[in-house]
Design goal:
Blueprint lengths: L1 H16 L9 E6 L5 E7 L5 E7 L2 E8 L2 E3 L9 E16 L7 E15 L6 E9 L2 E8 L7 E7 L2 E4 L3 E5 L13 E4 L10 E5 L4 E7 L7 E7 L2 E6 L8 E4 L2 E2 L2 E7 L2 H6 L2 H4 L15 E6 L1 H4 L15 H13 L4 E4 L28 H11 L2 E7 L4 H5 L2 H10 L4 E5 L7 E4 L5 E4 L4 H16 L3 E4 L26 H4 L8 H5 L30 H10 L4 E3 L4 H5 L2 H9 L4 E10 L3 E8 L5 E7 L4 E6 L9 E8 L12 E8 L4 E6 L4 E8 L8
Parallel strand pairs: 21-22, 21-28, 22-23, 23-24, 24-27
Antiparallel strand pairs: 1-2, 2-3, 3-4, 4-11, 5-10, 6-7, 7-8, 8-9, 9-19, 9-20, 10-18, 11-17, 12-13, 12-14, 14-15, 15-20, 16-17, 25-26, 29-30, 30-31, 31-36, 32-35, 33-34, 33-36
Length: about 675
C-alpha cells in the first residue's frame, strides 16, 4: 500500500540523519488536543526510562506510565534511553464511510512524534507517535530499519497504563478457553485480573475511560495485565514461538487507544478508533449492500435441526427455498444457510480437517438454491466454518470464494469454533500448529481472508474472530463480526445472557465496532434456564441499539408469521445510517440511541434497560425542524417483565415534532423501539 511505503521512506530518512544529543532532553511539556482538552506529556527518568502521562482539563487521567519492549534474543529496550527530538503537526479532515453508523466522520487531531535512542550499547532507535483528540488519544511505536535491530522478536511490550484515580471497571478475562464470549465483570479498578480490551472504567468523579487498540495488522492482539494497584501493562497474545511478535524492521505497532468522556454516552459517540485506521485501501466496495437477513440457524441452536447430515439436517434445498421466499416477501436482503457443505459430521469442533468449502451435502442443491435467490432478488449469505482450522481453510478458501462469486454471493460469514489456544495455523516450519485466536499468526490469516474475499467481490463477517480494531475503514469489506456473547447463549447457555448484557455491550465491546449479535427473537422459552431474558420490545430496540450493517432477523420463520405486529418494526428498520446519536446511558444499566436512515428522512430510536424498570424522558430535538413525524411506538406493556411477561407489548402511533418530549417506560429487562416516519409537507410557519 502506498501510504506504508511513503511512511517508511520518511522514517528511514529521519532516522539516518538523527544523532543522539550530547545534552539529552528530559521531558516534553504537555502537548494538547485541538481544543486543549486532552494533553500528553513525555519524560525520561534518571535511569533513562521513557514514560508518558495524560491529563484532561488539567486533571491527571493516566499517571506516568512506561514504554518499551522485551525481546527474546536481545536485551530489553527500556533503560538508557534519550529523547532525540520531536516533531508535531495538526490534521483535520472529514471523510465519508461507504456504510456505517454515520455517513460523515470528522478526524481532527494534533500529532506529536517523539524519537528515542539508547545512548550506549546497541543504540537502538524507535519513535512513539501520539495523536491527541479532544476525546482521547492513540499512540504507537514506529521502529525504523537499523543495524542493531534488523528483526524484532518481541516477547512482551512494556507499555503501561496507570489509571490515575480510583473507580470501577467492566471487563472480561483474557486467555480463557471461550475466547471473547464471557459475561462482563464489574469490579474496582484495582481488582481487575488479566483482561481483554476494550476495557471500560468509570472513576469516582464520573469520568469514563476505555482502553483498546486500533489498526491491528501483522501483530499480536493486546490484553491488559494488572501489575499492582491501578497499573496495567500490555500483555501480547502468545505466538507460535517464544516471541509473541516477529517483525523485520521497519515496522509499526497497532495504536494503543484511550477514549475519555464525561459520561458513558460520550464514549459510545467517539470515532477515535475508526479514525486511527488508514483510509480505504481497497477501492470500490459497492458489491456489499447493508441488509437485514434471515437464515437456517436458530433451529440448530434450539436443537430442532442439525448442522450435520441425516434426518435432522437443517440445510436442505426445500428449507432454503422457503427462507428465500420469506426474505423476498418481507423485503429482506439475504439468507444465511449454515451446514450446507460437507464436513459437519463427527468431531468438527476445534478440528475442521473434514470441511469442504465447495462440496454440498446430497440433500442441498446449491445451484438451484442460488438460482432461486437470484430470481427473487435475494442474496445468499455464504458460510465458511473452519472449526478453528485456519491452516486447512487457507488451502481451500480461494476455491470457496470463487464458487460463491460465480453464484452471486457477496457476503460470507466465517467461523473459527475452537477453544482459545487450540486454533490451527501454519508454524515456522510450514506445518500446522496450535495457535491463539488473536495471535500474530491468526491476525495474518484473517488479513489474507479479507484480501482474498475482496478479490472475489465478497465481504466478510467473521465469528470467533480477531477483535475489531477499526480496520473496516481500511478494508471496508470487513463488515461485521462476533467477538462477544451473542444471542445463541440464550438458546443453550448455562446461564444465558442476563438483562444487563446488552447495556454492557454498548459501552464495552461495541466501542470497537459492529457486532453480528443476531437479535429479533420472539420465541422466548429455550433450553437455557431463563430463556431469552428480555421483552419483545427490547428485542426490537436491539436493531437500533446494537449496530451492524448486516442485521439478522434471527428467529424461526413461524415466529414471525404468527406475530406480524411486532415483526413490522424488523421489516422497517434499516441497517445503514446517516447519523447516530447516543442520547443517554449508563454502563450496564440502560441506553437510548437514535439513528437517521441513510438517504432518507426517517429516524429510529431504541432504548433498553437492565433488570430494573426505568422511565426515561427523551426530547426529540434530533428530528428535523419544520417536519412532522408519525411515531410508530413498540413499547413494553404495563405488566411486561423479562421473567413472566416477555411477550406483552403495546403498539401505537402518534404525531410528533422535534419540540416534543417522549416518556419512555421500560419494563424490567425491557425496552422500546420507535420508527419516526417523516410525513409530507412542512409545519406552517416553519
Amino acid at each position: 500500500m502506498r501510504w506504508i511505503a511513503v511512511f517508511f521512506a520518511t522514517l528511514a530518512l529521519n532516522a539516518a540523519s538523527a544523532q543522539v544529543p550530547s545534552a539529552p532532553v528530559r521531558a516534553i511539556a504537555p502537548f494538547c488536543s485541538p481544543g486543549g482538552v486532552v494533553c500528553v506529556s513525555v519524560a525520561i527518568d534518571g535511569d533513562g526510562r521513557a514514560s508518558y502521562s495524560v491529563s484532561r482539563l488539567g486533571a491527571p487521567v493516566i499517571a506516568p506510565s512506561r514504554l518499551g519492549f522485551m525481546l527474546t534474543d536481545a536485551p530489553k529496550i527500556e533503560r538508557g534511553l534519550a529523547i532525540m527530538g520531536s516533531s508535531e503537526r495538526a490534521f483535520d479532515e472529514t471523510w465519508e464511510q461507504p456504510w456505517g453508523e454515520r455517513r460523515l466522520v470528522r478526524n481532527q487531531y494534533r500529532e506529536l512524534s517523539v524519537a528515542f535512542a539508547e545512548r550506549e550499547g546497541l543504540q537502538r532507535r524507535f519513535a512513539v507517535v501520539f495523536r491527541v483528540y479532544d476525546d482521547g488519544l492513540g499512540f504507537r511505536y514506529e521502529v525504523p530499519a537499523q543495524d542493531g535491530l534488523a528483526t524484532a522478536r518481541i516477547s512482551a511490550e512494556l507499555t503501561e497504563f496507570v489509571i490515575a484515580d480510583p473507580g470501577e471497571a467492566w471487563w472480561i478475562p483474557a486467555l480463557e478457553w471461550n475466547r471473547e464470549e464471557y459475561l462482563y465483570n464489574r469490579t474496582a479498578i484495582d481488582a481487575v485480573g488479566l483482561a481483554q480490551t476494550p476495557i471500560t472504567f468509570r472513576t469516582e468523579d464520573g469520568l469514563h475511560l476505555s482502553l483498546h487498540e486500533a489498526a491491528l495488522v501483522d501483530y499480536a492482539g493486546m490484553n491488559l495485565s494488572r501489575a499492582e494497584g491501578q497499573r496495567f501493562r500490555a500483555m501480547l497474545t502468545p505466538g507460535v514461538t517464544a516471541a509473541s511478535v516477529v517483525r523485520d524492521t521497519p515496522f509499526l505497532t497497532p495504536w494503543r487507544t484511550l477514549q475519555i468522556s464525561d459520561n458513558a454516552a460520550g464514549l459510545a459517540m467517539s470515532n477515535l478508533i475508526l479514525n486511527l485506521n488508514e483510509p480505504n485501501a481497497l477501492g470500490d466496495v459497492s458489491f456489499f449492500e447493508p441488509m437485514t437477513y434471515v437464515g437456517i440457524w436458530w433451529e440448530m441452536h434450539l436443537g430442532q435441526a442439525s448442522w450435520a447430515s441425516g434426518e435432522r439436517h437443517g440445510a436442505t434445498t426445500e428449507r432454503a427455498i422457503r427462507a428465500i421466499d420469506f426474505a423476498a416477501d418481507n423485503g429482506f436482503g439475504g439468507v444465511l444457510i449454515e451446514g450446507w457443505n460437507v464436513g459437519w459430521d463427527g468431531n468438527w469442533f476445534g478440528n475442521g480437517w473434514d470441511f469442504s468449502f465447495t462440496q454440498a451435502y446430497p440433500d442441498f442443491d446449491l445451484e438451484r438454491v442460488a438460482a432461486r435467490a437470484q430470481a427473487r432478488g435475494v442474496q445468499i449469505i455464504g458460510h465458511h466454518e473452519t472449526g478453528g482450522n485456519a491452516y486447512h481453510y487457507e488451502r481451500q478458501m480461494r476455491d470457496g470464494f470463487a464458487l460463491y462469486q460465480r453464484l452471486g454471493v457477496h457476503v460470507v460469514k466465517t467461523g473459527y469454533v475452537a477453544d482459545a489456544g487450540q486454533a490451527q495455523g501454519e508454524g515456522p516450519d510450514g506445518a500446522p500448529t496450535m495457535i491463539w485466536h488473536e495471535s500474530q499468526a491468526m491476525v495474518r490469516h484473517q488479513q489474507r481472508v479479507v484480501e482474498e474475499a475482496f478479490a472475489h467481490g465478497i465481504a466478510v463477517n467473521p465469528h470467533e474472530p480477531v477483535k475489531d480494531t477499526g480496520l473496516r475503514r481500511t478494508y471496508p469489506n470487513l463488515v461485521s463480526r462476533e467477538g462477544a456473547r451473542g444471542m445463541e447463549f440464550n438458546a443453550w447457555g448455562q446461564p444465558g445472557n442476563p438483562p444487563e448484557h446488552e447495556a454492557n455491550l454498548v459501552f464495552t465491546r461495541l466501542l470497537a465496532g459492529p457486532m453480528d449479535f443476531t437479535p429479533g427473537i420472539f420465541g422466548m422459552q429455550t433450553s437455557s434456564p431463563d430463556g431469552v431474558a428480555t421483552t419483545w420490545a427490547k428485542q426490537l430496540a436491539l436493531y437500533v441499539v446494537i449496530y451492524s450493517p448486516i442485521q439478522m432477523a434471527a428467529d424461526l420463520i413461524e415466529s414471525y408469521e404468527a406475530n406480524p405486529g411486532p415483526f413490522q418494526f424488523i421489516r422497517d428498520a434499516p441497517s445503514d445510517w446517516e447519523e447516530s446519536l447516543v442520547l443517554n446511558g449508563e454502563v450496564g444499566d440502560y441506553v437510548t440511541i437514535a439513528r437517521q436512515e441513510r438517504g432518507g428522512a426517517d429516524w429510529y430510536l431504541g432504548a433498553i434497560t437492565d433488570e430494573n424498570p426505568r422511565v426515561l424522558e427523551t426530547p426529540l430535538s434530533f428530528l428535523a425542524p419544520g417536519r412532522r413525524y408519525r411515531a410508530h411506538i413498540y413499547a413494553d406493556a404495563p405488566d411486561a417483565h423479562w421473567r413472566d411477561g416477555r411477550e406483552r407489548i403495546v403498539i401505537s402511533a402518534r404525531e410528533v415534532t422535534r419540540a416534543d418530549v417522549l416518556t419512555l417506560r421500560l419494563a424490567p429487562g425491557g425496552g422500546q423501539a420507535i420508527r419516526f416516519e417523516a410525513l409530507p409537507g412542512r409545519i406552517r410557519g416553519s
